[in-house]
């Protein structure tokens, strides 16, 4: 009988703490899931607002519509007050030095880059590659042409040469941003060619 009592005593010592731990884990998991559900829509709303603000920064317009939702990247067409096309906005993800870099490029219908904004460069090296996410770097693309490829140089960039100066010590990150802008430039030229072809039909 004593052995049986010892068995149940030991059994309680193991089972009760285990049940308590399981209950704690379940409560914590439920709390986290509930918090996630409550904040998910708010986070999405904040992201949407930030995207809208960024669009107006890279290309001023009265209205923005999704241009092609079947492409891998985000594309928007911008309209002026009269409903005429003011330009296009492209959001590209490219590989940088440490990970992905997300870039938004605005291009006016005349083929000039209205503005560029680096939306995310947090995967790049702090104090170096992450500096591509600062306006004093990405403002260098404004006014460049879509007619020819944009290049990165270590010094001596000019609008005539369609080039930008790299961030000091972050050539790879600078080239990543430029690659995203060039991808946007190529896509813009493709859209313009398609529109011209449809006019001729």
Description:
There is one protein chain. This protein has helices spanning 2-58, 135-138, 171-200, and strands at 63-66, 74-79, 85-95, 100-108, 113-120, 151-153, 163-165. By secondary structure, it is an alpha+beta fold. The chain folds into 2 domains: 1-57; 59-200, no CATH class. The protein has a 5-stranded antiparallel β-sheet with strand order 1-2-3-4-5. Strands 6-7 form a two-stranded parallel ribbon. β4 and β5 form a beta hairpin. The mean pLDDT is 87.
The tally of strands reads: 7
Identify low-pLDDT runs: none
Binned, the helix content reads: 40-55%
Q: For the record, give the distance between the C-alpha atoms at the N and C termini, rounded to a whole number.
A: 99 Å
Give me the secondary-structure category.
alpha+beta
Q: Averaging pLDDT over every residue, what do you get?
A: 87
Layout of secondary structure:
Layout lengths: L1 H57 L4 E4 L7 E6 L5 E11 L4 E9 L4 E8 L14 H4 L12 E3 L9 E3 L5 H30 L1
Parallel strand pairs: 6-7
Antiparallel strand pairs: 1-2, 2-3, 3-4, 4-5
Key attributes of the depicted protein:
201 residues, alpha+beta, 2 domains, two-stranded parallel ribbon
